[in-house]
Amino acid sequence: MLCCVGDETCTFCNIKAAIGSRIVTETDDLIAFKDRSPSAQVHLLIIPKNHIRTVKNLDGGDVVLLEKMIVLGKELLRQQGFNPDDSTQVRLGFHVPPFNSVNHLHMHVIGLPFKNKYRSFKYRQGYPWYADASKVLDRLREGMSPL
């Protein structure tokens, strides 16, 4: 059963059939679910229901979608007792190709601490393999490319 409009071969487009029990919440545009290999105390993914390949494929027309993803991510972190505006407690961001594992846009929603040092390295801000969601949003609002 497809949850998204998009690619029938995409793991995340078929997510409801694959991991229905891990879904945390769903809106008209988004699905949030628990990561299958959590890197931290809280590790969720938020995906759009419309298939967007990666963060590199975002453009100015995706500002509202990205805003919704960030708002939902912060609300889910708040529900878990985190301050979503404290970067020492949380991460919201995207892996950048070729460092992403699934070619369907997915935002990592992470409540710290990380489970180990390797896991923290994957989500280190300011490195070429990880893009902070707020910075991507700021760039799109300014009419720039997402990265």
Largest sheet data: 6 strands, antiparallel
Residues in β-strands, percent: 15-25%
User: In the CATH hierarchy, what is the architecture at level 2?
Assistant: 2-Layer Sandwich
Structural class: alpha+beta
Number-wise, the strands total: 6
Helical region count? 4
Q: What do the pLDDT scores average to? A: 88
Rg, please? 14 Å
Which CATH first-tier class would you pick? Alpha Beta
The strand line-up of the biggest sheet is 1-2-3-5-4-6
The topology string of helices and strands comes to HEEEHEEHEH
Identify low-pLDDT runs.
none
Give the topology, please.
Blueprint: H1 15-19, E1 23-26, E2 30-34, E3 40-48, H2 63-79, E4 90-95, E5 107-114, H3 117-122, E6 130-132, H4 133-141
Helix pairs in contact: 2-4
Quick structural gist:
The chain has 147 residues and is α+β, with helices and mostly antiparallel strands. It has helices at residues 15-19, 63-79, 117-122, 133-141, and strands at 23-26, 30-34, 40-48, 90-95, 107-114, 130-132. A six-stranded antiparallel β-sheet has the order 1-2-3-5-4-6.
List keywords for this structure.
single chain; alpha+beta; HIT family, subunit A; 25% helix; globular
Question: Mind explaining what this structure looks like?
Answer:
This protein has 147 residues and is an alpha+beta fold. It has one domain (14-142): HIT family, subunit A (2-Layer Sandwich). It has 4 helices and 6 strands. It has helices spanning 15-19, 63-79, 117-122, 133-141, and strands at residues 23-26, 30-34, 40-48, 90-95, 107-114, 130-132. It has a 6-stranded antiparallel sheet. A hairpin with a 5-residue loop joins strand 2 and strand 3. Helix 2 runs antiparallel to helix 4 (133-141). The protein is globular. The relative contact order is 0.19.
